[in-house]
Specification:
It catalyses: L-lysyl(4)-[histone H3] + 3 S-adenosyl-L-methionine = N(6),N(6),N(6)-trimethyl-L-lysyl(4)-[histone H3] + 3 S-adenosyl-L-homocysteine + 3 H(+). By secondary structure, the chain is mostly helical. The chain is built from 11 helices and 6 strands. It folds into 3 domains: 98 residues, SET domain (Beta-clip-like); 87 residues, Serine Threonine Protein Phosphatase 5, Tetratricopeptide repeat (Alpha Horseshoe), CATH 1.25.40.970; 65 residues, Alpha Horseshoe (Serine Threonine Protein Phosphatase 5, Tetratricopeptide repeat), CATH 1.25.40.
């Protein structure tokens, strides 16, 4: 049991190129890093290789920090998860100021709680039929909350992401792009500066724009993704190479036109 607890507290969630969880691993030296909800470093994976990347200038003697949890949660939820899993409370400036909590929970509570419950019940589907069921549920809630819940509400944002994923898996590219575009402003608000999640979302939207022959828009979106990803991932990362290939194809299509 003590060994299990040590693994739980020190393991890292391994993610694929699109920041989706694929497993867990132990990286002893990286376990020495402390937490901040507003960290100066991020963890990126290249296969099973863990990469530590700085996302802003670090002063001599300044401690390197990462976020142990998803920072999109409101302060109270972040604190609960940190206490439950890591047995400490965070006292960073983001937690002291409860910054952006009002935007994260904007709208009537009974509206976003229904969306929160629906999002929490979603499990990764194994068939197209399951994806269709999830998409129908997302469409119904997004339609009923139109004008009542802003896209900056974090549960509405998660619902948009879920609808986008469902459309991609069902090859409904145009509808996927509509949902993806609605996520970009909330992502910019909650992941300012250099954040891998925002870079990946921009890449996903750029790919959808490219698939719809929206080459000027795709190129602009991909440039935004590139400017973030060169810091969060580095120029040698496989995802950066994928981005560059699509960007070059986009530029070639614009020259033909």
């Amino acid at each position: 049991f003590p060994l299990f607890l040590q693994v739980t507290c020190n393991c890292f969630t391994i993610s694929n190129g699109e920041m989706q969880d694929v497993g867990v691993g132990l990286y002893p030296s990286m376990s020495l890093l402390n937490h901040s909800c507003d960290p100066n470093c991020v963890i990126i994976f290249e296969g099973y290789q863990l990469l530590l990347r700085s996302v802003r200038e670090i002063q001599i003697g300044e401690e390197l920090t990462i976020s142990y949890i998803e920072s999109l949660m409101p302060t109270s939820e972040r604190q609960k998860q940190l206490v439950r899993q890591y047995c400490f409370e965070c006292n960073c400036l983001l937690c002291q100021n409860q910054e952006k909590d009002s935007e994260k929970l904007a709208g009537e509570e009974h509206d976003w709680k229904e969306v929160k419950d629906a999002v929490n019940k979603v499990r990764y589907p194994k068939s197209k039929e399951e994806w269709k069921h999830i998409l129908a549920r997302c469409q119904n809630l997004l339609s009923s909350n139109m004008g009542r819940l802003p896209d900056t509400n974090i549960y509405q944002l998660k619902m948009l992401d879920c609808a986008m994923d469902a459309c991609i898996n069902l090859e409904s590219w145009e509808e996927a792009l509509c949902y993806g575009l609605r996520t970009l402003e909330p992502y910019r608000l909650y992941y300012p500066g250099f954040h891998p999640l925002r870079a990946v979302q921009l890449l996903r939207v750029g790919k959808l724009q490219y698939s719809q022959d929206m080459f000027p828009q795709a190129l602009e979106t991909l440039k935004q993704a590139y400017n973030i990803m060169k810091v969060t991932h580095g120029t040698d990362h496989s995802l950066m190479k994928t981005l560059m290939e699509i960007k070059e194809e986009c530029e070639a299509m614009m020259r033909i036109q």
